[in-house]
Amino acid sequence: MKFVKNLASSLFIITLLIGCTITPKQVESNSASYDGGEKNSGFIGWTTNNSICYGVITFHAKDRYNSLIKIYGKRFEPPLKENYGIILDGRTTSTNYYITLEGLSKFSEMNRWRKNNQ
């Protein structure tokens, strides 16, 4: 009888410990931020150059990207350096930049870390 009470108590404690795992909710943006007076979050769109696909981002997005690299760049192997994957648009009057798909992926990942305070 005492064995059954101890077993029931142990199972109850184990159930509480397993059931009390708290995982934080991932932060999701409900809308884009404004960049240069437009609601684009600094991402303009897609382009190709010599059959290679690039994202097009604004000057302010490039600055945000570089600030994230300063904070999180060492988490990657090899560590990211400023302007990783960034290429000037090429048009002399443009302040937009091309970003490689890999760079855009890393930008997105670092931004997710920032939003989740990791």
Would you summarize the structure shown here?
The chain is an alpha+beta fold and 118 residues long. It has helices at 2-19, 59-72, 101-115; strands spanning 34-35, 38-39, 43-49, 52-57, 86-88, 97-100.
Rg value: 23 Å
The secondary structure category is alpha+beta
Order of helices and strands: HEEEEHEEH
The separation of the N and C termini measures 49 Å
Strand content: 15-25%
The overall pLDDT average reads 80
Range of helix content: 25-40%
Q: What is the makeup of the main sheet? A: 4 strands, antiparallel
Annotation field: number of helices = 3
Lateral strand order in the biggest sheet: 3-4-6-5
User: Uncertain spans, ≥5 residues at pLDDT below 50?
Assistant: none
**Total beta strands:** 6
Shape: elongated
List the SSEs and their pairings:
Blueprint: H1 2-19, E1 34-35, E2 38-39, E3 43-49, E4 52-57, H2 59-72, E5 86-88, E6 97-100, H3 101-115
Antiparallel strand pairs: 1-2, 3-4, 4-6, 5-6
Describe this structure in words.
This protein is α+β, with helices and mostly antiparallel strands. The protein has a domain at 34-115. It contains three helices and six strands; from the N terminus they run H-E-E-E-E-H-E-E-H. A four-stranded antiparallel sheet has the order 3-4-6-5. It has a two-stranded antiparallel sheet with strand order 1-2. The longest helix has 18 residues, at 2-19. It is elongated. The chain starts with a helix and ends with a helix.
